[in-house]
Amino acid sequence: MSATPTFYILHGDDSISREAALARMREAMDEDGGLNRAEFDGAQASAAEVLAAVRSLPFLAEKRLVIVKGMISQVTRKGAGRAEADRLIAELPGLPVSARLVFNETEPLESGNRLLKAAQEMENGYVRYFSAPENLRDWLRLRAQAYGAEINPRAAAAISDLLSYDEHSRQARGRNAARRRAAMQARALALRAADNELHKLVCYVDGEREIGEEDVAALTPYVPQANVFEMVDALANGNGGRALELISQSLHDDPSDPGFRLFALIARQFRLLSMTRDHLDRGGGQGGAIAQAVGVSPFVAGKLAAQSRRFKAAQLDAIIKRLQRYDQEMKTGRIAPRLALDLLVTSLASG
Question: Is the pTM here over 0.85, yes or no?
Answer without folding.
Answer: no
